[in-house]
Amino acid sequence: MPPPFTPLPAFAPAGNASLALHVVSPDDLPDWLSGPGLTWKGWLDATQFRAALGDLRLLPGADGLAGAVIGSGTKTARAQGRFGLAKAVATLPPGDWHLSGSLTEAAAKEAVLGWLLASYRFDRYRPGKTPAALPRLKLPDGLDGDSLLAMAAGEYLTRDLINTPANDMGPDDLQAAFFALAQEYGAAATAIVGDDLLAQNFPMIHAVGRASPRAPRLLDMRWGNAGPQLTLVGKGVCFDTGGLDLKPSAGMLLMKKDMGGAATVMGLALMIMRLGLPLRLRVLVPAVENSVSGAAMRPRDILTSRRGLTVEVNNTDAEGRLILADALTFASEEDGATIISMATLTGAARVAVGPDLAPYFTDDPVMATAIAAGAAAGFDPVWRLPFWDAYEPMIEPGIADLDNAPSGGFAGAITAALFLRRFAGNTRYAHFDIYGHTPADLPARPKGGAGQGARAVLHALPDMLGL
Questions:
Q1: Which PROSITE patterns does the UniProt entry name for this protein (predicted)?
Q2: CA–CA separation, 116 vs 153, rounded Å?
Q3: pLDDT band at 1, cuts 50/70/90?
Q4: Residue 215, exposed/middle/buried by CB under 10 A (0-12, 13-18, 19+)?
Q5: What is the DSSP string of 145-202?
Q6: What are the catalytic residues?
Q7: Domains in the chain, please, with CATH?
Q8: pTM above 0.85, yes or no
Q9: What is the rounded CA–CA span in Å between residue 309 and residue 223?
Q10: Distance (Å, whole) CA 400 – CA 307
Q11: For a designed S-S bond to 405, which of 61, 176, 297, 315 qualifies (C-beta 3.0 to 4.6 A apart)?
């Protein structure tokens, strides 16, 4: 059965009485305090309110609470920290609120999206916990509430899938969630399961997943009958022990998130279907558990991929690119598709850009420009890294066509992306090497599972596909 997904918060009804959440910058604070009828200067001075980003004060009134004020911070502070106004969700008392202040459309959009994302709570494993009542926000005039709710819904799904531990999120459980998503939006979903089918048609997916008693599979969803073709491919390693190249225990602690690519493309698919975008969508998720048993693939095994290229397994812990390779080959067999893959693929990407940025790779200048613009519009930072052709020899071991884990330790994110590009064929292709996890609580991003790149792609689609 699919997990019980966290419900979305609702906007406060437009007709309800609500309290004002005044949004004030440090530059505007003196004028705001001297405005007619404002009586809180002494209180705010006494509490040293300076309108720093996310700094909030409740405002007393004659009959109780009169509202609240929150700082929007300096331009530098806003550039360094997304969703600062979302701190209000954890601080304000329950009730209905509206934003007050001279916010640009982009700032209002960021504030509302941050509010929705900050309202997420993962309480599946605390059934006795009574959910705390949270403040509700009215949708400001001029904003597209449907788009904001779709982005939040996709992120909630992604977080729920990643946060669910592997004992409840194996390949079969991921399939159940995948099928539930398809059913909700009228998509068609199938699963290719079974040793004979996989070994013959998707041999590297089979080789990675065959050691687990939880059978590997390839999930396939289709939605939409007209428009350009977009195919999303997400790495679905539901738990990664490292295989025979076993990880140390500390290295396994976050490995329930190794299906973060699958969770993110499913969240993006939800956004696309919920908004009814005019395109034909396909989602492919190779779902496996990389386990240790007598059936496990071995170091220096040579596998023959669906594309026919041979791969020497020089590290069984570099398994994600193997399963993605077969899925990308399958995707590329469909003419005219634009393909995007997402995967928690390399530690090298984290060393390069840290946990907050998702590097992406593409040779297509239109895709590159659209994704960069989409990242800004969706408050979803990404950073382009190159398919550096000069590194191609690094992924060729000599004994086989390709090496899944080149030695030397250099450019690990790039060599992994180059490996995947070999299987994407002559399609328009982009690859995201995501982290899928927030290491510590941040505004609108609680510690735990996190989507990366989905909102950037969503906002990029009109320019990328000509919608």
A1: CYTOSOL_AP (PS00631)
A2: 9
A3: very low
A4: buried
A5: HHHHHHHHHHHHHHHHHHHS-GGG-SHHHHHHHHHHHHHHTT-EEEEEESHHHHHHH-
A6: 247, 321
A7: 19-140 (3.40.220.10), 147-465 (3.40.630.10)
A8: yes
A9: 31
A10: 14
A11: 315
